[in-house]
Write a structure and sequence with these properties.
The protein is an alpha/beta fold. The chain contains eleven helices and 16 strands. The protein has helices at 53-59, 126-130, 133-146, 163-174, 186-195, 208-215, 232-239, 262-266, 281-294, 296-300, 317-326, and strands spanning 3-4, 12-18, 27-33, 41-51, 76-84, 96-100, 109-113, 117-119, 154-157, 178-183, 199-202, 221-226, 240-248, 270-273, 308-313, 332-336. Strands 1, 4, 5, 6, 7, 8, 15 and 16 form an eight-stranded mixed sheet that branches. A six-stranded parallel sheet has the order 11-10-9-12-13-14, with helices on both faces. Strand 2 (12-18) and strand 3 form a beta hairpin. Helix 3 packs across helix 9 (281-294) and helix 6 runs parallel beside helix 7 (232-239). It is globular.
Length: 338
């Protein structure tokens, strides 16, 4: 049984598809059959969807959706519940929600398991709510669950002006860490300082290893969140403190590198990594519950907020991807679905 709001609606919807692997121009508007919610799912009429680096990789043919997921890109959504599956009990039609999805965000409707959805935070627009799930889920898992960041520790995030970076700075600071961050311009460094970074490092002008060592009296940082890879891997080992942890979430500068692994041994480092999209619903449900308990109050009190770079209409998804790939954005890029 499906519970839904009143009114007759079309069974088709607008969506963005990837016509072939390639640049932003291969994103094309199309129509698809509107999904129906499964037993434990919500059908959400979308107001907005976040744009993320994995969307660009999928468009290029380098990051296929997991088995069973739609080929429509988009990993985070916000909107209004219009129908629920027979065993879905957490939300009802009319509720405003945001959610992490394995795909399907670039469309007018999307189905999501109720355990991977959260109420849209009080006081935030649905465009802002759509900018939350992918980055907050990623940061919570990799910085706090996997990385084990604790109050009083020193934390370094690379790409600090990205959606992930701006989220990581705010959450790490909110939970009592000393925060260092890297970015490629003074404007981005200033934005990171405004978000709470204790040290903002312009990597085009300063060696982040030397900056970290100077700021910590040679001790180094306890945790590094890295989405750069390449030669940063070896440099992270140099910047890390004894018993330090490095969490890898992407490889923008390449997935292969030479590293001095003696530092791994002598400093007793832990170098780990993860991907989120392919993890099962139950795994993501644990993150959902922890975010609702520990982070949602901060959002509702506006102590932590998504940093909004730009909003594009759905039909301009290609321009949104171009904005991301140009690398000048600070914070989140969002599609307005209306």
């Amino acid at each position: 049984m499906v519970r839904q709001s009143g009114g007759k609606e079309s069974d088709v919807m607008r969506a963005i598809e990837i016509s072939e692997p390639g640049g932003p121009e291969v994103l094309k508007m199309t129509t698809r059959t509107k999904p129906a919610p499964g037993e434990t799912e919500l059908l959400v009429k979308l107001a907005a969807a976040g744009v993320n680096r994995p969307d660009c990789l999928q468009r290029q043919g380098a990051y296929p959706p997991p088995p069973g997921a739609t080929d429509i890109p988009g990993l985070e959504i916000a909107g209004e519940v219009v129908a629920t599956g027979g065993k879905a009990t957490r939300f009802k039609p009319g509720d405003r929600v945001c959610a992490l999805v394995p795909g399907g965000g670039y469309a007018e409707f999307c189905a999501v398991d109720e355990t991977n959805a959260l109420p849209a935070p009080n006081g935030l627009t649905l465009s802002e709510a759509a900018a939350i799930p992918e980055t907050f889920f990623t940061v919570w898992h990799n910085v706090f669950q996997r990385g084990g960041l604790k109050a009083g520790e020193r934390f370094l995030v690379h790409g600090g002006s990205s959606g992930i970076g701006t989220t990581a700075i705010q959450l790490a600071k909110a939970f009592g860490a000393e925060v260092f961050a890297t970015a490629g311009s003074e404007a981005k460094c200033e934005a990171m300082r405004e978000l709470g970074a204790d040290l903002a490092i312009n990597y085009r002008e300063t060696d982040f290893v030397e900056a970290v060592k100077t700021a910590t009296g040679g001790t180094g940082v306890d945790l590094i969140l890295d989405m750069v890879g390449g030669d940063y891997i070896n440099r992270n080992y140099q910047a890390a403190a004894v018993e330090g942890r490095i969490v890898q979430i992407a490889f923008l500068n390449g997935r292969k590198a030479e590293a001095d692994f003696s530092l791994l041994m002598m400093k007793r480092l832990t170098h780990t990594g993860s991907t989120l999209r392919a993890r099962d619903i139950g795994f993501k449900a644990v993150i959902t519950d922890e975010l609702r308990q520990h982070v949602w109050p901060l959002l509702s009190e506006r102590k932590v907020l998504p940093v909004m770079d730009s909003i594009f209409p759905l039909e301009q998804a290609s321009a949104a991807h171009q904005r991301m790939e140009d690398g000048e954005h600070i914070g989140k890029i969002v599609l307005d679905i209306g």
